[in-house]
């Protein structure tokens, strides 16, 4: 029997490929487009919960059209800052669809960071006003940074970013890094309420919240919003008055019905899935006054669509380390 080896890619190996937002957004669009055509085997996330408010999720997927297969094993531990560790961490595995053999094991943090922001950016491309100038980002962590970069990529008209975080050191780091990476003016605020006044787009990317932070009166006609906390950041009144609410995976999102604090006031009515906007079967924004909200939960099809691309690119460029899985028959 042949020796079996796989390619190992650390976060730094992946970053060294210097993939741009065009590529990232394209792979995430392909995944969402395929998903709504029902050519994706993608069971809803299951998880184990070793501590309160924490999870480790398994996310297997097979994209038939792309012929890409793999699994993501990702943890979310909001108190990890106490140990100087990231909130989100994990690995993903790419399998050969012909033999099932694992061909690549890679860090998943970069994928989580960029594909989540890419899904929001795609939503904004279809739903935000095309001349949007101001964005409010609530939560200055990884997603807060990635979201500004990805959204600015699809909406170059964005020139002002209002930032708020409960931790002042996060705001300072945000201002420093985002000023280096974009030409946006980054303006810090002392409260959520002040930060979201007079903007075109609001993104909440905080941690597991125990009460909503965006009230109905804050979300004005014409605004587009996105929340990464399974609806927790947005008030019940707001969730149940907005007419267009989008999600990437409706079945998985509806599964949050039983999760305490998610979607205050019960599940809102969803307008469509993200792939339908991409495939043109549902229109995004239709006038300058409608309010549109998105709750993209994130699914493995996005990680593995991008993961397959990263694996092939790294192989071509000779990046990463080959590790032995087995030498010979036992
Ligand atoms: N939908 C998805 O696909 C997806 C993917 C990745 C992460 N997430 C979620 O996105 C959120 C952000 O993830 P991250 O990796 O950027 O985390 P992170 O820890 O890097 O950043 C979160 C930031 O939010 C701040 N924060 C916490 N509570 C706040 C509040 N009430 N007001 C303002 N700021 C507050 C924290 O101080 C921190 O700086 C998490 O809830 C995570 O679970 C969702």
SSE layout:
Layout: E1 4-9, H1 11-16, H2 21-36, E2 40-41, E3 46-48, E4 55-63, E5 68-76, E6 88-95, E7 102-107, H3 109-127, E8 134-138, H4 142-154, E9 160-164, H5 168-181, E10 185-188, H6 192-195, E11 201-204, E12 224-227, H7 236-239, E13 244-247, H8 250-254, E14 272-273, H9 274-279, E15 292-294, H10 300-317, E16 321-326
Helix pairs in contact: 2-3, 2-10, 3-4, 4-5
Bound molecules: nicotinamide-adenine-dinucleotide.
Care to give the gist of this entry?
By secondary structure, the protein is of the alpha/beta class.
Tally of DSSP helical segments: 10
Provide the helix percentage.
Answer: 25-40%
CATH-level-4 superfamily name of the largest domain: NAD(P)-binding Rossmann-like Domain
Shape: globular
Q: What compounds sit in this structure? A: nicotinamide-adenine-dinucleotide
H-E order = EHHEEEEEEHEHEHEHEEHEHEHEHE
CATH topology-level name of the largest domain: Rossmann fold
Residue ranges: pLDDT <50 for 5 or more in a row? none
**Largest sheet entry:** 8 strands, mixed
Please give the radius of gyration in angstroms.
Answer: 20 Å
* Overall CATH class of the largest domain: Alpha Beta
Q: How far is the N terminus from the C terminus?
A: 10 Å
Q: What's the architecture of the largest domain in CATH terms?
A: 3-Layer(aba) Sandwich
Mean pLDDT: 96
Q: Determine the strand fraction and express it as a percent band.
A: 15-25%
Number of strands: 16
Structure classification: alpha/beta
Account of the protein in words:
This protein is an alpha/beta fold and 330 residues long. Strands 1, 2, 3, 4, 5, 6, 7 and 16 form an 8-stranded mixed beta sheet that branches. Strands 10-9-8-11-12-15-13-14 form an 8-stranded parallel beta sheet. Helix 2 crosses helix 10. The chain starts with a strand and ends with a strand. Nicotinamide-adenine-dinucleotide binds next to helix 3 and helix 4.
